[in-house]
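[Q] Does anyone have a clean structure-token version of this?
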Amino acid sequence: MNKNNLFRYVAENRNHVGITAFESWIDNSDSFYRFVSVNSDKIRGKIRGAKSDEDLVDVIFELEVAFNMVGTDGYDIEYEKYGSKIGRAPDFTVTSRSGLEFNVEVKRIREGALDVKYQAIIDDIVKRIRPIPSMLAFSFTIDVMDLDQDFLRRFEDATATIVSFISDKIRLEDQRLPFDETVDYELPGFENEISIILSKPKGKLDHSKTSYHGGSFPIFYTQKESNKFGDAVFEKVGQMIPGSINILLIASNSSTHEKEDLQDALLSISELLRDKKEEFFIKKGFCDINDFLSQAENLSGVLFKTSWSSLSNPSNYLWCNQKAALKIPDEIRQFLTGLGKRK
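[A] Here you go.
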């Protein structure tokens, strides 16, 4: 099956920006093309089974990890090697030319509810502004950070007013704004919070619509970012294979989740163990503390990657479990910390 037919078979006309990226990985990587060919039915089933866009992005994240791993010379990648024979198991099994083998389980931290809500409001405004015929483009600048639910409520309630305001300014500036220049307007009711930027790109060819050029994005810190890392460890630790080197790879495209949050989560788990908080671990689904400790011995380390898009400069953070039954050899450490960097 050639690359085009393989993509059509696996993606089944699913329309999403992640699917477009998936197609480009197949086109640009022979090794990933071979990986998808071998696992085409499995991948097709996962894409078909993704009921929401967030579910689909989880699948794409998983495939992007595979894309980065198969692009590293000297490593063979097996997708869901253990199948369903042993219940829950890691996503990937990796073998190096030297014979070292390890498992990788992938977990994506989804955007927080505030981020999703904000983007939905922006998408609605953009959908209503773009049909206005003009030579202009518009964008938003958010001038404050750590925005909260109250801001989002005000922002959503003002949607109609915002659309009307931007529409009026587009009609005002369409003819008088010089090419390659911009003009800023503070949004009424959101002074010192939100600005609208109008620009007139000289190279804009489509005058039947107003373009959208994005803008700054607020960061909705909830002070609970580390909780999601801890929950990921508790959720996935039971999938680690005894007698193997096992890595939990946590990925996030959320600006509110960073390696410091992972470090805080791991520190919190250590403190809970030290203080013998038996009830906490029982609530997380373990029989007791010893049950968690027994499972945690199979976790060799946690790799955190904020975004897979920066291939030339990956920002991988690797935590190595000093109490693991099998430690991570230097060869595997180098593989993991350099994952995503292509020559």
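[Q] Thanks! Anything notable?
[A] Residues 53-70 form the longest helix (18 residues).
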